[in-house]
Request: fold
Amino acid sequence: MRGEGFTILVFLTLVVLKGFYFKRGSAATVTYDHRALVINGQRRVLLSGSIHYPRTTPDVWPEIIRKSKEGGLDVIETYVFWNYHEPVKGQYYFEGRFDLVRFVKTVQEAGLFVHLRIGPYACAEWNYGGFPFWLHLIPGIQFRTTNAPFKNEMELFLAKIVNMMKEQKLFASQGGPIILAQVENEYGNVEWAYGVSGELYVQWAAETAVGLNTTVPWVMCQQEDAPDPIINTCNGFYCDRFTPNSLTKPKMWTENYCGWFLAFGNAVPFRPVEDLAFSVARFFETGGTFQNYYMYFGGTNFGRTAGGPLVATSYDYDAPIDEYGFIRQPKWGHLRDLHNAIKQCQEYLVHSDPTYIPLGVHIEAHIYHKDSGGCAAFLANIDHTSDANVTFNGSSYYLPAWSVSILPDCKNVIFNTAKVVSQKNLGEFPHEHTTSAREHLIASSSSWFWYKEQVGIWSNNSFTASGLLEQINTTKDTSDYLWYTISIDVTEKLLPNNGEALLLLGSLGHAAMLFVNKKLIGFGYGNHEDASFTLMQKITLNRGNNTLDFLSMIVGLQNYGPWFDIAGAGIFSVVLGGLADAKEDLSISEWTYQVGTEGEYLGLDKTSLANSSLWTSGNSVPLNQSLIWYKTTFTAPEGNGPLALNLSTMGKGQAWVNGIGIGRYWSSYLSPTTGCSKHCDYRGPYDASKCLKNCGQPAQTLYHIPRSWVHPGENLLVLHEELGGDPSRISILTKTGQEVCAHISESDPAPVDSWKLNSQIKPMPEVRLICEQGWKITSINFASFGTPEGQCGKFSHGTCSGDNVLPIIQKACIGRESCSITVSTFDFGDPCPGVPKSLAVEALCSA
Ligand SMILES: *[C@@H]1O[C@H](CO)[C@@H](O)[C@H](O)[C@H]1NC(C)=O
Ligand SMILES: *[C@@H]1O[C@H](CO)[C@@H](O)[C@H](O)[C@H]1NC(C)=O
Ligand SMILES: *[C@@H]1O[C@H](CO)[C@@H](O)[C@H](O)[C@H]1NC(C)=O
Ligand SMILES: *[C@@H]1O[C@H](CO)[C@@H](O)[C@H](O)[C@H]1NC(C)=O
Ligand SMILES: *[C@@H]1O[C@H](CO)[C@@H](O)[C@H](O)[C@H]1NC(C)=O
Ligand SMILES: *[C@@H]1O[C@H](CO)[C@@H](O)[C@H](O)[C@H]1NC(C)=O
Ligand SMILES: *[C@@H]1O[C@H](CO)[C@@H](O)[C@H](O)[C@H]1NC(C)=O
Ligand SMILES: *[C@@H]1O[C@H](CO)[C@@H](O)[C@H](O)[C@H]1NC(C)=O
Ligand SMILES: *[C@@H]1O[C@H](CO)[C@@H](O)[C@H](O)[C@H]1NC(C)=O
Reply:
């Protein structure tokens, strides 16, 4: 039945936030007081998100930044990646993905601000924390402490970046978007390890930064002793209890983790949006005025950019915008609603400090007043399990456990962190098979070419040294690989029964393959938490000459911890046991070394070698081979969206598309089988191991290929496989649409932006659906008003179900990019009077 007052709203534009974006090109002063950053004399409530420019391609920057703005952000935060900007001392690089000026200008064009975290230490799960390796080779250098060679280089790079920004007029005082800058990064976490020199270094870093006259405030995060005027800011999963080190500084949060980074061998972390929203609301409730999501868009660690040990190629971070640049729902939408609710409180938030009113055990209210009258309130239930009803200002409010309600007029709840009313997306590209992803094999078994690498020394540029060398000092980060080789003469007398001996190997990490007489006999590896490992392996030796060849591998240079830069890697101990007389310690023998592998040296990843006769072909590609290179060509699936390469049948290695490194893969490393929870309870404090998925599976099987890296026709794919895999089953995926859904009840809150607080009319709840990528709603797969059951993707009609709901929804939505349907009996009639009703809709967005 259809009611009389048929009112279906179609909203064409996304939420336009109340608030004031800065005018492009006009100079602005940026200062601060104890409440907030002050821009042109006005205190500002600022929502910020981290996007690291090299973690996607420049053609995609505008789209990601637009989605960030539509999600309610005011500021984009990025680190600066020194090692790629100055690959050789004094030689700078700012092209392509590393075009910092273009990135800052792209943010400016979108009308957002920039927080430039120059560091130059970045951490960021980035190779060597962002330090160029040549720095390590400067005689007498010690990183991140009062050390003249280090300070000299750090100062040069800080000045280089600041001057570059000044020349391009990118600071706010010059009409640019940069309102904030950071020096160092989380140094307070490790300062203890550097003693008094660490304290002096903090003083020096602060003075040096301030001396660069950026005209914008500087911050130091996780730095309690940050000297004035530098603002010390908080990083963490919660920062409501944080207070800056001076009453003159505002309470700022520079890293609120939307999830956590992924490491090979680990399960996939995620953070429920209800808890993330809770942490943000608690922060603004308790006096915060600047909050940054780390990451708002995480992206990809292409090539060898990933940090270590063992940081994965995907840097998705469970962020509101996923690795591929698609909006992650309901995370993005729920946070957008939260931002909108906070912005509706802005005039109160910037006016006063909050007044705290205890409302019960684990129940808190914080109120912000204005002199001219009126107030905004945050009501929080911080209990882990118990929901509560509270009385506030004469009214009763229901507060779910671990949630915050926002009342911009001290009366109406326009948002609760635990009530998600934004659209959900069904299945996440490319991780779950949905009808809206297309997958095909990359090449048939017969169209692969291969090259089998030599085991051990492959060229005349090897060298010998006495004892086992530290790997990083030896390879100087020019390759992940170092060959350690030795030949041993086993006499008749020493040869034990059947030639069996025991090989004991100790390594600082991160992985190593063991060959005896050119045959693979073992593979050892560590993990992100501890990359070191030992191997004990029975081996068979021949009478006479035997060769031992060990390929030691690094999976991303360490990026975090005290003195992380000298942590070291590689094999440090080799002992042979079980020989007739005694065990033999080979650690101090003379070893022969070779940096890199033969295929790397030949340049097999390069497009110029695509037709080289080095490559072999045949009727079927060899499977399960160690140290082999594979090559094929493929045509990219149609469309203009990003691509995903499914490497689940491969072992460990690296991949290149048209000569560009798409990253390291390690599909054969399964995560522990325990520790995952299917439904992770968002209630109670979150930590990085609380919510995990994909237990017992590889951390990552799908690898991002940016669309701009492929072209029509044949594209070159090259793989360097170390352990053994099956390339014939590699497939490529693209996204052709998105199934979206929502389930909203009559008693749910109305969309935050539909509130007109001084009007008597209360807005009604709505189902709102939005497609991205310019897709349109092409079908309604389910619609029911009444008592529909089940979850998105598995809805079914309940005992009460109105007639004609489907045609109403179809009329409102089909052919549109977005639609909105009020959840009320006005539109649908009342199929079961007296019963609480809801509207469930599932739709398909596609081209
Ligand atoms: C910064 O400003 C001070 C005072 O105006 C000046 O002495 C100094 O040289 C400036 N430094 C730089 C790096 O511009
Ligand atoms: C809160 O109040 C509602 C309505 O009066 C009631 O149904 C519910 O049980 C109460 N919840 C708690 C936790 O007291
Ligand atoms: C109570 O709510 C009214 C609005 O209905 C508001 O004007 C008043 O300031 C509030 N008082 C307190 C103490 O929150
Ligand atoms: C990746 O390929 C494997 C092996 O063919 C297959 O089982 C898996 O479903 C694929 N994954 C996706 C997301 O397509
Ligand atoms: C090493 O090999 C390269 C190319 O294979 C050759 O040009 C060079 O002369 C060799 N060097 C020595 C010292 O044998
Ligand atoms: C043992 O074999 C290796 C590789 O064939 C060779 O380089 C080495 O000279 C040999 N050593 C002895 C003692 O014969
Ligand atoms: C690497 O070499 C530097 C000096 O060149 C030395 O100080 C450092 O201890 C070495 N690192 C390791 C892990 O051996
Ligand atoms: C390799 O050969 C193909 C087919 O003959 C050709 O299209 C391509 O341009 C060649 N590539 C290079 C790098 O020479
Ligand atoms: C691959 O080869 C290794 C030994 O080289 C063997 O242990 C393993 O079972 C093989 N795997 C498959 C899938 O054939």
Remarks:
- The first helix runs from residue 61 to 70.
- DSSP finds 13 helices and 46 strands in the chain.
